[in-house]
Amino acid sequence: MLYVVGTGAGDRSGMTMAAEQAILSSELIVGYTKYTELMKELFPEKEYASTGMRQERERVELALKEASDKTVALVCSGDPQLYGMAGLAYELGAAHPDVQIEVVPGVTAAFSGGAVLGSPLTHDFAVISLSDLLTPAEKIRRRLECAAECDMVIVLYNPSSKSRADYLRKACDIVLRHRSGETVCGFVRNIGREGQESRILTLSELRETAADMFTTVYIGSSETKVVNGKMVTPRGYRNV
Question: What is the phi/psi pair of residue 117, to 5°?
Fold first, then answer.
């Protein structure tokens, strides 16, 4: 049995009961090294196996192999479908017909971070990762252009890294072709973890803001506003 588990974006309080139960019922926990280290703090009695960054196929193959004779939890931060291992587990799982796969959803950073800021995702929104490791940069730019043009709230994952220090600035420049510099935006860093910080700011201010891989960025629509210090997108197109 292989559970592909979304552990949420922060500490144990952000984990669903179903996710916790799947981990407790598993004999082995497999995941990216950073995530398994976090799990060890919460479930020290479990056995662990991990792989490094960019070793997703090896990680899933390891989990599937181990799941042939035991119950395994393959852990992903947030939700395992969104930039996680769920799809790859099903793809590679076709070669392991003896392994049953079950996806256990988790609360992705878009929602847990949105709750910190207020309620920016009350209406239609797009989630776009700025990482071009697996997606061509031109395709990312086109997706940003389309999302900005149709006036949806945009949530950005992986906004910057050491090798992509200017990607958030470039993304803001694309959105600024279609939206005012005064558009309400926000970001949350280290959601649900020690050192969590957040800020509501304008799109022009966001363009000049430094971010890292642990930051989730929210670019509001033309309807998004600040209500009592919170970022809010009304449902529908009537101001309330």
Answer: -80, -30
Residue indicated by tokens 């910190």: 116
Domains defined for the chain, CATH in brackets: 2-107 (3.40.1010.10), 110-232 (3.30.950.10)
Handedness of CA 172, 174, 178, 181 (dihedral sign): positive
Q: Tell whether pTM > 0.85.
A: yes
> What does the alpha-carbon distance between residue 119 and residue 112 come to, in Å, rounded to a whole number?
10
- Closest to 67 (Cα-Cα) out of 36, 37, 29: 29
The secondary element (H helix, E strand) that includes residue 135 is: none
Distance of alpha carbon 18 from the chain centroid = 19
Give yes or no for a contact between 185 and 219, defined as CB atoms under 8 angstroms apart: yes
Q: Give tens-digit pLDDT for 73-101.
A: 999 999 999 999 999 999 999 999 999 99
Which ranges in the chain belong to alpha helices (H)? 17-24, 33-42, 56-66, 86-93, 109-117, 137-149, 167-176, 203-207
pLDDT tens-digit map of 145-200: 999 999 999 999 999 887 788 999 999 999 999 999 999 999 999 999 889 999 99
Contact between 26 and 2 under an 8 Å Cβ cutoff? The reply is: no
Following CA atoms 74, 79, 83, 87 in sequence, which dihedral angle do they give, to the nearest 10 degrees? Answer: 60
